[in-house]
Amino acid sequence: MSTRGRFGPLVGAIDEGTSSARFLVFAANTGEVLTYHQEQVTQICPKEGWVEQDPFEILTKVKNCVETSIDHLKKLDIDPGDIVSIGLTNQRETTIVWDPLTGKPLYNAIVWLDVRNADTVDQMRSKIYGKKAETLKTISGLPISTYFSALKLRWLLDNVPEVKTAVEQKRCFFGTVDTWLIWNLTGGVHGGLHITDVTNASRTMLMSLQTLQWDPMLCRFFDIPMSVLPQIRSSSEIYGYLAETSLRGVPISGCLGDQQAALVGQMCWKQGQAKNTYGTGCFLLYNTGTAIVQSTHGLLTTVAYKLGKNSPAIYALEGSVAVAGAAISWLRDNLHILSDVNITAELAQAASSTGQVMFVPAFSGLYAPYWRNDARGLIFGISEETKKEHLVKAALEAVCFQTRDILEAMNQDCGIPLTKLLVDGGMTVNSYAMQLQADLCGIPVVHPWMFEATALGAAMAAGSAEGIDVWDLKNMQPVPSDTYLPAISDDERDLRYAKWKMAIHRSIGWDLEASPNSSQNNNSSNGTDNILKLMPCGVFLMSSISLILLSQHFTC
Hints:
about 35% helix; six-stranded mixed beta sheet; 21 strands
């Protein structure tokens, strides 16, 4: 291992998330964060269900973060020349199209949360017959949903004349955020690299999990020309060199979607290990090793990482929750019952035990394991004694209940229940929420003290790449952690979960304008099927009468 400077070789990590861009500098010898800078990225919501960002703002904020962090290093008397490589991690599925001759975006970035393409989803499903739906899912690991990049790109081709014209003139590049950043940072119109890595490509619904290449059949099904797609590379190799910022000439040698980066940062190397990241959404990944496990309980099959050109691909099952931290932000920004998201624990603890409020934050539908675009957010159990404290507590519980939904599905898909859950992300600083998670799931929740798991994973991939070799993945030691143990009885846990399932059932079918075909999960079962499958036997007995009565009024 190289011994540059007093901290040894350094590795930078670009972390471009849904709400902010950051640049962090790690010491490769210790994994310590030496400095960082973060800037918020604006979300643009021109219509209900539409979420966009300005691609140029994303790029500018990333450059600003790099330059400010370099200034911090200099003030700390650390030589920026000690940075030997850069890793990148990014919000996934967010879709960008641009003209490679001018470098200008052809439209705003369509963020992963956006659901404008619901009609496109219905059109694609209308093309499916017989076993074709199962075939598509087997190839890509994903259901047809508004979530994935192929459906967003199809919407752009159908609804934005500039994009259609650019494709016809062979002047259109498509990419997720990693592709857009790497292309610009390695030269842009002057020879920028049009590439992505296997983890981001696996979220487009256009890549074969078997071949790790763009699949011709999937591209024909979505009618997307392969000429617009970037080259797929491994998650850890020297792709090219920075042509922008004061780090010009430093290699970019690591790239992972943010949730896969967190799995690497949490060192979930073994089959059966899992982590949950709490951010705008909530994402639980379960390492399945080199086996491609097709879920029958509403989960996604995805690539976890491929750390080198000649290394095997490691796969994962993933449960994706659309709204986690976003529910807390909604209480602050829309209802104005919070002045600061950091006081949620204090407010939740102050909630009286009288009654129980349930909050299903299905603002634009439900992701795993239900996959229902017609679900909508609902709040139940309000009485004259309900206060803002109850709503805050219900929002935190909603995040934890959604995580349990995913754990129940994973237990049934894999046959071996998790014995502990590793956690990371912004909400994990809330000790009340983490204890709540342990209570409602019934397993220990382990929170490593290394808060920056996502950026760390990107740095680890970059620093361990062939030709860089400053990060020794094999001999990394687990970092210290806090462990939260369940503190309520099984009966109380199951009773509270039964109420959650009843609330979920009521939320499904609420949007009567949504297509009845919006129900979609990995085995084509409907929302009610998943509610019943994931409900423990005792819970089912307590809730079956209510579910039968409700089924007369709600389409499932």
